[in-house]
Amino acid sequence: MINDFLFIAASNPVTEIAHEFGVQPRYILSQIISFLVVLAILYFGAFKKILSTLDDRQRKIESGLKYADEMKLKLAESEKRQQETLREASQKAALMVDEARATAKDYLEKQTREAGERAEQILKKAEEAITLERKKMLAEVRGEIARLVVMTSSKVLARELSDDERSRFNSAAARELTSSN
Amino acid sequence: MRGSKQIRNTAKKLLQMSLENGEVSAERVSAVLNSLKAHPPRQYKAVLRGYLSLIRRELALSQAVVEHAGPLSGEILQSVESAFSSIYGRSVTAVAKDNPDLIAGLRIRVGSDVYDASIAQRLHELARAAN
Predict the structure, then answer these.
(1) What pLDDT shows up at residue A1?
(2) Closest residue, chain A, to B79 (C-alpha)
(3) Strand order through the sheet with B113-118
(4) Which pLDDT score is estimated for B2?
């Protein structure tokens, strides 16, 4: 049977290739065992360490990529916060400018109002002073006129009254003083 | 200060001694002066000045100075004496004094009291009312 197999194999390209590589049916078992031994040695002695190293590198790469992603996220968040901060700062600045404008407007209105009030007070005081001066002047004129009238009347009476009229007036004055007291 | 008060009190006592029936008596004044001359008190001149001042004031209260402008009859003087004697409760003598500034009317002065019913006073009141 083996010979049949060999015969068939001798005419098969696969057999030819096996023959080229030194595969002998009689040594096939030992070769398989040798291969398995070499395979085990290579697996436990080299492949496992290489695979472990590759796994470590893979983990590091993944960790690096993950860190990069986190950094990207953080950067994006930071940019977002920065934008928000800038927007808030801009809003606050606009608010402050509005408040400053409103304050300036109020101050201007207050100053204008106070200036108007001061002007009114000055006008009022001036009017009062004018009125007072006018009253004083009128009083002086009235007093002067009264003084002139009295002086003129005195002179006229002193010149025009006769002794008889003076005597009658004296009698009337005596009656007035003696009867009233 | 105490000295002047003492002088005033002494002068007042001397005045009281000089009055007779509430009026200054010439005899009593002479007696007081003689007594002062015989027994001069402390600060003799000051006491005499105070006494003179009080006598003048008392005499002024007994005298009605009637200032007038124009003729003044004796009847008017008598009526003034009668009326002011009744007012002050003592004998008041009227003394006439011409004052042309009054224009017409009377101004009677008894002590420090003044009663005015003259044209000058009325014109003065008119001028004051006009002011």
Answers:
(1) 44
(2) A178
(3) B93-98, B63-69, B105-110, B113-118
(4) 56
Cβ within 8 Å of residue A133, ≥6 positions away:
none
Q: Is residue A128 packed enough to be buried (19+ CB in 10 Å), middle (13-18) or exposed (0-12)? A: exposed
Low-confidence ranges of chain A (pLDDT < 50): 1-2
| Beta pairing partners, B98 | B68
* Alpha-helical regions (H) of B1-131: 2-18, 26-38, 44-61, 74-88, 119-130
Digit-coded pLDDT (tens) for A113-147: 999 999 999 999 999 999 999 999 998 888 888 88
The tens digit of pLDDT for each residue in B44-69 reads 899 999 999 999 888 888 889 999 99
- Domain positions in chain B are 2-60, 62-130
Q: Give the residue carrying structure tokens 């005045």.
A: B15
CA distances from B120 to A146, B62, B65 (A): 14, 26, 17
Contact at CB, B70 and A166, closer than 8 angstroms: yes
- Token pair for residue B91? 């004998």
Residues in B 10-69 with any Cβ partner in A closer than 8 A: 68-69
CA distance B92 to B44: 31
- What's the CA gap between B25 and B32, in Å, rounded? 11
> Do B73 and A157 lie within an 8 Å CB cutoff?
no
| List of chain A residues whose C-beta atoms are within 8 Å of the C-beta of residue B103 | 154, 157-158, 161
B20 vs B29: CA distance, rounded Å: 10
For the CA atoms of B7, B12, B15, B20, the dihedral, rounded to the nearest 10 degrees, stands at -160
For residue B20, the surrounding DSSP H or E stretch is strand B19-20
CB contact under 8 A, A173 and B103: no
Give the chain B residue nearest A139 (alpha carbons): B131
Q: Could you give the CA distance from residue B128 to residue B115 in angstroms, rounded to a whole number?
A: 18
Determine which of B68, B116, B122 to mutate to test the interface with A (most A C-beta atoms within 10 Å).
B68
